[in-house]
Amino acid sequence: MHHTPEPLLTANDLRKNAAFVAGEWIAADNGATLAVHNPADDAVVGLVPDLGAAEVTRAIAAANAALPAWRSRPPMERATLLKRWNALILAHKEPLAEILTAEQGKPLAEAGGEIVYGASFVEWFAEEAPRIAGEVIPSPRAGSRIIVQKHAVGVCALIIPWNFPNALFLRKAAAALAAGCTVVIKPSEFTPFSALALAELARLAGIPDGVLNVVTGMPQEIGRTLMESTVVRKLSFTGSTRVGKMLLAQTGDTVKKASLELGGNAPLIVFDDADLNRAVDGCIASKFRNNGQTCVCANRIFVQAGIHNAFVARLKTVVEAMKVGPGNEPSVSNGPLINAAAIAKVERHVTDAVAKGATVVTGGKRLHGLFYQPTILTGATEAMELAHDETFGPVAAIFRFETEKEVVDAANSTPYGLAAYFFTRDADRIFRVADALETGMVGINEGLISNSVAPFGGIKESGLGREGSTHGIEEYLEMKTLTISSSL
Ligand code: SIN
Asked: Closest ligand 1 atom, CA of 296?
C-alpha cells in the first residue's frame, strides 16, 4: 500500500544544502550560508542557508496559506500521508542515521535507534489523528446543548535541539500535522541536515507544499521573527531553560500557546535494597545515552551507604569497557560532544568537583578534540557546580546518602523537575518516593523512560505541556464551545 521510491535515496541525495519553504528548496536572499561541522573531526559536513527575517516571513506566509486546506482535510487523509512519511523514514533508516552521525556525533547504531524512535511518533500521531473528538455537555438551560469541538491551533513554530535532531523534529511535527496545524521548523544550526532530510521525505510522501517548512540559520533573528508574528499561534521548543524563558516571554505579546521541554537536573537514587545489576544497567542507560547529552540524563546519582561501594565497583567495570571514538566506527559506544562549549562545560564541572573534594574513580580527562573519557566521580556534594547545573556529558557524579528523607529532600532541591529515577525492591517505598519526587516523569527500576506512548515533559522550570502519548496532540488543538438553543 505504501509507495516507496526505487531505488531508495542515499545520504547524498538526502543531504540538502537548501532550506525548504512552500515546497521549494531555497537559498538565503543574500546568499549567506552556514557551515555544519562533524564534531568527530571538525570536517565540514556541508553548508546550509543562513536565513533572515524576510525568508522566515515567507515561510510563515506559506504555512498560513496551506492551513485552511490542511486543517479541513479529513483526519484519515492526514493520517494516510503521515503513514506514508513514516514508511519512507523507516525505509531510509540507514542514510538518515549516516547524516545524523555525521552532524551530531552519536554512534551509528544509536543514530539508527533514534530514527526508529522518531518514526514511532509519526506512526503514533497518524493513528491519533482520526481520534480527535469533541464533547457534548448537558446544558444548564432547557432546550439548549453545548458542543465542544477541537480545532487545529494554526501555524506553529517548532524549534528543535541538536541532541535528537531527528526524533524531536518528528515528536513535534507529527503531532502538529496530525492535529491539522501547519509548521515552520527551525532546526539547530549544529544539526540542520537531519531536518532537511525529513522534509524531503515529507515531500515525497505527498505532504502538501507549505504544510511543513524548514528554515535554517542562526537562532536569534529566526526566533524573533517567529515569535513576533501574529500568524504563528503556537510555539513548541525543546532546549535550555535559559532560552525557553526568553522565548516564553516573547510569546507574551501575541499570546501564543506554548509547549516547552527545557533543562533537567535528574536525580537517580539507588537504595540499599535495590537489585545491583538492574541499578547499574539503569544508571548506564540514563547517564550515558547520547554520551550524556539528553535532558533526562541522570545528573546527580545518589547511592545509599550500604550499597555504595558495590555499586561504584560494578559501575566502574561497565564504564571502563566503553569505547570512545567517531560514531561511524564499529563498536564505538560514546561519540564526541557536540562542540567546544559543551566539552568546556564538562571540564569545568569536573575541575570544580575535584577542587571541592570529589574523587575521580575513572576517566576525568579530555582525550582529544571533542572526545571526553567516560567518567565516574565519588564524593559529590551540594557545594559543587554539577549539583545545580546539568553537565550534559559523560560524567557520573555520585553522592552518598544515608536516609530516604535526606535523599528525597536533596533530589527536590532544584528548580528543575523533568525526570527522576530510583531503584528499590521495597513496594511501599516505590509509591512513597514516586509521590514525593517533584518531576514530570519517574523511572522506577528503569533508566529509559522515553517512548511514543508515554507523556513526556516536566514541571517547575523544566517546562510546560507534554509530548507523545494521547496527550501530545492536545498541545496542537484548541477548543471551540458551541452553545445551541432550540425551542422545546
Ligand atoms: C531530550 O533530551 O530533550 C529528549 C530525550 C528523549 O526523548 O528521551
From this structure: 2
Are 89 and 96 in contact by the 8 Å Cβ rule? The answer is yes
Q: Is 283 a catalytic residue?
A: no
E strands, 316-469, where? Answer: 359-362, 366-368, 371-372, 375-378, 395-401, 416-417, 419-423, 441-444, 459-460, 463-464
Please state whether the predicted TM-score (pTM) of the whole model is above 0.85.
yes
Instruction: State whether the beta carbon of 166 lies less than 6 angstroms from ligand 1.
Output: no
Residue 156 is among the residues annotated as catalytic for this protein = no
Helices (H) and strands (E) in the chain, counts: 15, 24
Ligand 1 centre to CA of 143 (Å) is 50
Amino acid at residue number 477: L
Residue position matching grid coordinates 469541538: 149
Q: CA-to-CA distance for 118 and 7, rounded, in angstroms?
A: 23
**Ligand 1 atom at minimum distance from 161 CA:** 3
What pLDDT is stored for residue 487 in this prediction? 82
pLDDT tens digits for range 356-399? 999 999 999 999 999 999 999 999 999 999 999 999 999 999 99
Secondary structure string (H, E, C) spanning 31-85: CCEEEEECCCCCCEEEEEECCCHHHHHHHHHHHHHHHHHHHHCCHHHHHHHHHHH
Residue 60 half-sphere exposure toward CB, CA atoms < 13 A: 23
117 lines ligand 1 (CB under 6 A): no
What is the whole-number distance in angstroms between the Cα of residue 43 and the centre of ligand 1? Answer: 26
209/199 Cα distance (integer angstroms): 11
Give yes or no for a contact between 343 and 366, defined as CB atoms under 8 angstroms apart. yes
Beta strands 416-417 and 257-261, pairing class: unpaired
Give distance in angstroms: CA of 290 to centre of ligand 1: 10
Would you report the helix, strand and coil content of the chain in percent, each value rounded to 5?
40, 25, 35
